[in-house]
Design brief:
The structure holds two protein chains of two kinds. By secondary structure, chain A is mostly helical. Chain A contains five helices and two strands; from the N terminus they run H-H-H-E-E-H-H. Chain A has a two-stranded antiparallel sheet with strand order 1-2. Chain B has a six-stranded antiparallel β-sheet, covered by helices on one side. Chain B is globular, with a radius of gyration of 16 Å. The chains are: A mainly alpha, B alpha+beta.
Chain lengths: ~130, ~160
Amino acid sequence: MSMSRDEIYEKVKDILVDALGVDDDEVTNQATLVGDLGAESIDFLDIVFQLEKQFEIKIPREELFPAENLLNDSEYVDNGKLTAAGLARLKEAMGHVDFSEFEKDPDLNKITDLFTVDSIVQFIEGKTNAA
Amino acid sequence: MRWIWIDKFVEFEPGVRAVAVKNVTMAEEHLHDHFPGYPTMPAALMIEAMAQTAGILVGQARNFQEKVILAKVNQALFHEIVRPGDQLFLEARMENITAEAATTRGTIRCEDRLIAEITLMFSHIDQNLSGMQFPEENFVFNAQFMDLLKCYIPSAAPLKQDL
């Protein structure tokens, strides 16, 4: 099933409005899930569930939001920042994300800024076109 | 003492759906405090009744091994009020269950009236929260609860397979 980017975006937007209780116009391409839209940890699971249902795909644990495992590994984290190895690992795991801002200062506190509306749309686009 | 807010199950299809009954009586204090002089059941307590119904459905699906915690009220729509003497039928259906969490969709009815529609999300907390440690003992489905289950669901014994 091939879908245009706009179609995917509209459906992702509906899911985020529903899951996060935000208004339509708050969901922009660059909006971050945590910072701008107020997502909490359980919301990430809720979003994954709803994406799976809406797009009829399977999203393995850690694929869409894979940061968690990485953060507990000392090879990847040093003094509150991602190491070069950690950054490489995260980039590999998250092909759907734009790292250009984050890599200037890979502070763990800023990792949630990587999860934008656009990153979800890109992820779904990759999944549905591959299927 | 565990706070029990449903009276019994009348239907239980493991992993699929459960129907519980809650009898609302004038003897319950909450009825008198919400709107003094006009006893009605607070909507938040209808959510609690649904959370217990659905939470047990979710717990049973993993043989009561997981600690099942209400994590999110996705949706709660209330169409009618509930008065003393009403008998509520709470039906919860499993929408999705994974290692980490589950979602349920439910309705509350009284006779032929649709009272509420409630969608909930539960967390299996040992599988979430970045590896945070919780007590090993299952404080959600504890021994007292497992005893109660026998009168909640007359056919409860086969529901917990390793009992």
